[in-house]
Amino acid sequence: MTTPPTKPARPLRMLFWESTARCNLACSHCRRLDVQTSPDELTTADVKGLLKSAAKMGPPVFVFSGGEPLLRNDWEELARFAAALGVPTALASNGTLIDAAMARRISRANFSRVALSIDAATAEAHDAIRGPGSFDLTARGLAELAKLGVATQINVTVTRANVGQLDDMLTLAQQARVAAMHLFMLVPVGCGVSLAPSQQLSPQQYEQVLNWICDRQVEQAKAAGRPGRPGQAGRAGLGKTAVELRSTCGPGYYRVAAQRGMNLARPGLRGCLGGVSVVFVSHTGEVFPCGYLPVSCGSIRQEPLETIWQGSEVLADLRDFDKLKGKCSRCEFQAICGGCRARAFAQTGDYLTEEPHCLHEPK
Prior knowledge:
With 363 residues, the chain is of the alpha/beta class. The chain has twelve helices and ten strands.
């Protein structure tokens, strides 16, 4: 059972639900190792209970993720149930199952945004990561959703295999008129552990990608005639061809942006949000700070999510920045960055130690 922490929890902003471990792809960098059906997968009734808990907690944006969430046969029913409760929803899919008929079903579900995974600007490079034919299928899904006016984004997992294609990826995103492109900085968990070190970003490349994001944000802001607002402003604020760029699992972005004197545009937003204002619920109901930090905080089959959110000792640790270790404990950017707790855990087994990919030396 959880106990009340010494510090109150912040509001929960995003709840990622791993709807299923099943997937029709086997991507080389996926955080999951098991892609088979689990007999313990949450039932429709279980998820409705989770949505009721979410409705009491703000509510947060409820993200249907996976595995591949479109493989569940109840996702439409659950999306309607969430809407009736006033819980906003989003969908994260690999996009390969989205033909014209599926796009119409997704459009009727009224997700606030649909994120599709594209990991390279060319079919050859993307398919080498996600499987033969996957690029064309995902591109089809993106086009079908665009026809219906569904708000979309592209999720890119950045590795050495595609880091040289970021400009081409941004061009692809602009041409597809997506609302956002989120760059996921690889955390070596699941299948990603087996990636050769030669395919994982070095700390130097990690820093270069963060600066690339800042550079492109500045360029887009200038092109829109808003040079003083380059941060993570939305597409609507920057013009028709602008794409919201964001670093995920790359909290050092906020440190780099601050060092460059950029207007971050969203005061109070912090780099690592795992357990702070984000939580992840697995397909079996276990609660984790994020999908890349495999430290259990409890189970929604034993306690309501709101109880776990308020009382988990693990979550309390992550919210207490005084408990950070190494150079993260003395960093002047601690409040806006915090280091990636999942990457720290993956490399050291301690989620409170310093971010292993950060080159910054605190003053």
